[in-house]
Design goal:
The chain has 286 residues and is an alpha/beta fold. The protein is built from 11 helices and 8 strands. Helix content is 38%, strand content 20%. The protein is globular and about 50 Å long.
Length: 286
């Protein structure tokens, strides 16, 4: 059984992302899940998304998922397994592409994320989803995108929405409080001036008008420090906002993500995520 995680680790270290996620996709059962792929949601920029829905879904909660990749890499097709894993639990899951750097800076991929959420609200019912119960979710840099949509009112305002229109936010080893930057590219993405950099930090925008948050974090994460989730949770609590922080011992950055799929025994992230979704989908609208 240890061969599988070792194989995944070797593929990641070799930079073979397409091969790696192809192997993960191949291992994810898709029974009872309908896939609707290559749906263009932003014609101006040629951006598309994939929808994974449970069989006979009706008024199901909706999750818009943003993948990680340091805001520079990634393809929605690599994360078919995540969409199927969520859909198998009764969720209409939407995996969306956003434009990466260097095509755009932060403003670009947050505008793209807002467009994906707007599309989900407007079209979820056609796939058995409930547009009143839309969650945003993201891993690593995708967690920053989801968190910014849930906290900084500017972005959803561009599509006629606000953070409180969301049923909840789910961060999977997300980046919420990451100044000073540890990668030179981040200065190009987020800016050099301190004031400009501060605009990229979700922790700076929690003001008491956010949807509930679930923060999933591995304690052995060496890519995104657990201190970021702790800081974000503290900011939520200081504003009296509902937040749950789940810290998983002996779990690293990639392991936390893969616990939704081929490494399910590593951490109960799927169970904790679904409990959060069901709890807040059943709650009264904000």
């Amino acid at each position: 059984m240890r061969l599988l995680p070792l194989l995944f680790a070797a593929l990641l270290l070799a930079g073979c992302h397409a091969t790696f996620f192809g192997a993960v996709n191949a291992r994810q059962p898709s029974t009872g899940v309908s896939a609707h792929r290559d749906i263009v949601f932003d014609t101006a920029h040629g951006l598309a998304l994939d929808v994974y829905s449970p069989a006979d879904a009706s008024h199901a909660p909706v999750v818009v998922y943003f993948y990680g990749g340091s805001w520079m890499t990634g393809k929605r097709q690599w994360f078919r397994w995540m969409g199927e894993a969520l859909a198998a639990q009764g969720v209409v899951a939407i995996v969306a592409d956003v434009r990466p750097w260097p095509k755009v800076r932060m403003e670009g991929f947050l505008q793209d994320g807002a467009e994906a959420v707007r599309w989900a609200r407007d079209h979820a019912a056609g796939f058995g989803g409930d547009p009143a119960h839309v969650f945003v979710m993201g891993h690593s840099s995708g967690g920053q995108i989801a968190a910014m949509l849930a906290t900084d009112k500017r972005w959803l305002a561009t599509v006629g929405m606000k953070p409180r229109d969301l049923a909840g936010f789910i961060g999977v080893a997300g980046t919420y409080d990451f100044i000073p930057f540890d990668e030179p590219e981040f200065y190009e993405i987020f800016g050099h001036a301190p004031g400009e950099q501060a605009l990229s930090q979700p922790v700076n925008f929690v003001d008491g008008d956010e949807p509930p948050a679930l923060l999933l974090q591995g304690e052995n994460d060496t890519i995104v420090s657990p201190a970021e989730a702790v800081s974000f949770e503290g900011r939520y609590r200081s504003q009296g906002e509902p937040v749950e922080l789940k810290l998983y011992p002996h779990v690293g950055h990639e392991q936390l993500l893969l616990a939704f799929g081929p490494l399910k025994g590593k951490a109960p992230v799927l169970r904790d995520t679904m409990a959060f979704i069901h709890r807040h989908a059943a709650a009264a609208p904000h």
